[in-house]
Amino acid sequence: MTDIPTAGAPQPAPVPAPGSLPSVTTAPAPPASRDCPACGTANPADSTFCEACGADLVVAARASDGAQPPADVSDGTVLASATPQTAPAGEESPLDVGWTGAVPSSATAPATDDLTCHACGQGRIVDGYCDHCGTPPPNPRDHLVDSPTAWVGGVCDIGRRHARNEDAMSLSATDPPGSRAVLVVCDGVSMATDSHIASLAAAKAARAVLDQPFPKGVGTPDSWASGAARALTSAVTRANEAVAASVVEDVPNPPSCTFAAAVVEDDVVVAGNVGDSRVYWLPDAADEPARQLGRDDSFAQEQMTAGVPRLEAETGPHAHSITRWLGKDAPEDLTPHLTTLTPTPGWLMVCSDGLWNYCSEAESLRTLLHDAAARLDDATPTTLAQALVDFANEQGGRDNITVALARLAGRGSSTTTTEATAAAAPVEGDPTDG
To answer: pTM for this structure?
Structure first.
């Protein structure tokens, strides 16, 4: 019969079998101290972290004997030790023992991209503005530097007064120096709508035409000059069509711009312009005169033709009023002013009025260029163009500024036909039908 004990009644202790002794378990004596394996400092026996260096003593003790020694506290509760660190070095998580932040295995440069704000260097461009300082990204057209070859280069700059750059520049060139180059500069009319679109469309369209080698005809200087004249006239026509197509709606002042271009082919230069952007020839030899190639289509030019001094005409109230331009409302006759020459060593320059506003006469401009070259350690077309842009900005920079330069050494395949080429060229300023 099995007895069922009454609930709550004391139970008798089990009686050991005859001849046997009860098993007695003796707790090990706690160590007097716990030495830190990292720095060797003696810590109290119940310490879990070294008081000197902060090392984990519980993990160290477990690693040394393979056991998990309990940490005794005053109320008799046994504390579980921390979870051991198992993640690879450099990939720790905040839950790992002793974590102080992820440490990469190798140095990593901060990532930068086109969205990083150039103003503060901290924010990123989001929806057109920096999310840190609110600054919009710079417009690439505010300052453009182009150097298709070592002997051709240019700078197009917004200046200091305008909110946008309405100038445009398009350059191309081949090696060796003097072989072939195209320099096109267009200046948007400030009073017109979206003239920055007009100038860029015109510059690109004109260069596409002028990039094609001129027809040689029967191989005489006369046939070459005629082919060059037709090409420049065709370039103006294509540029005008591009400007007219740049706006689809009728607006009171449709986009419009001026035009100036120079082409070098086998060390012979042909230049043409419509409006008041200019082409200059600035020779090295002091006994050879510097000159403007072509003439302006402007009220100031008409005054100078009538005998008004240049300084007075170009500083008058209507000095920059132009009489011909490219655009939907352009005058019917857009035949460019054409000039052809075979140069000696010197500089060919195509520029907008943002530069010649402050230095108009060709001789003064040559002096300015030579002085700038003397100050430069390396006077390349690009560094010289930048120096001239800097000069215009220092004078006030009240307009957009574009300077394109080609360095010509005065040697090439055309040297034996210099006089014949010059004689066959269109007379400066005379209209030439394409």
So the answer is: 0.68
